[in-house]
Write a structure and sequence with these properties.
The longest helix is centred in the last third of the chain and has 20 residues. By secondary structure, this protein is of the alpha+beta class. The chain is elongated, with a radius of gyration of 20 Å. The strands form 2 sheets. A 6-stranded mixed beta sheet has the order 2-3-6-7-8-9. A 3-stranded mixed beta sheet has the order 1-5-4. β2 and β3 form a beta hairpin. The chain contains 7 helices and 9 strands. It folds into 2 domains: about 180 residues, Lambda Exonuclease, Chain A (Alpha-Beta Complex), CATH 3.90.320; about 45 residues, no CATH class. α1 runs antiparallel to α4, α1 packs across α5 and α4 crosses α5.
Length: about 230
């Protein structure tokens, strides 16, 4: 269990999956640059969070719900949590303050672009579900990612593998935060779309790190830090 003062943001998991150095630059060094992609994403999330709770037949839609998990050491804000009407006492259902009946939580995260080749979006959504599980004391099997380009939902199942990956990444994030050390850059094609490219300088720092390793090996000394 993590103390409330030591909780880290759920959003950091997405940065960590993309690149540990990017995560450290943002969450340890407090560096940030916005490009077109991040600006569009921020505007989309702001619009979602500004909307009020909505009630439709058979569903309550809560926006901007605050989340927390002491077990994972995470805190954050969900884009949308839908509560679908369920039979009384049904597995995975909860009772909501001020509302009659039983409701099954279903988290939905909004993304500006298309599905990504890695699991960063699924991990973020799963972390939100795991926070909800801890807060409500029920299991949550499914959620959804809404992508702006195809403008449709992609359902995500929170199976044991995804939950295990999410928990391991949360632990890794706390480990990195505890040592306060920014990993060295390792350039790859995905670096070109990163808003922190000009601060990270992955091509230059990757080459310097390789030279440092070579010189340390050639001279029989210790490798120099990044």
């Amino acid at each position: 269990m993590v103390d409330e003062d030591d909780l880290l943001p759920i959003s950091g998991l997405q940065h960590l999956v993309f690149c540990e150095r990017q995560w450290a630059l943002i969450h340890i060094e407090q560096q940030w640059e916005e490009n077109r992609l991040t600006a569009e994403g921020r505007i989309l999330h702001d619009r979602v969070h500004e909307a009020e709770t909505e009630v439709r037949p058979g569903v309550v839609i809560a926006r901007g719900l605050r989340l927390q998990s002491r077990r994972l050491g995470l805190t954050g804000q969900a884009d949308v949590v839908e509560f679908h009407e369920a039979d009384a006492g049904a597995e995975g259902s909860v009772q909501l303050p001020g509302r009659k009946g039983w409701w099954r939580p279903f988290p939905v995260e909004y993304k500006r672009g298309r599905p990504k080749p890695d699991t960063c979006d699924e991990v973020q959504l799963c972390a939100e579900a795991m926070c909800l599980e801890e807060m409500f004391g029920v299991g949550i099997e499914r959620g959804a990612l809404f992508y702006g380009k195809p403008r449709r939902r992609s359902e995500v199942r929170f199976d044991a593998a995804l939950k295990g990956e999410t928990a391991a990444l949360a632990q890794r994030m706390h480990e990195l935060y505890s040592v306060r050390r920014t990993p060295a850059a390792v350039y790859s094609k995905k670096c070109d779309s990163c808003s922190l490219y000009d601060r990270c300088l992955p091509r230059a720092t990757s080459k310097r790190t390789a030279v440092d390793r070579y010189m340390a090996s050639a001279l029989g000394g210790k490798e120099m830090g990044p």
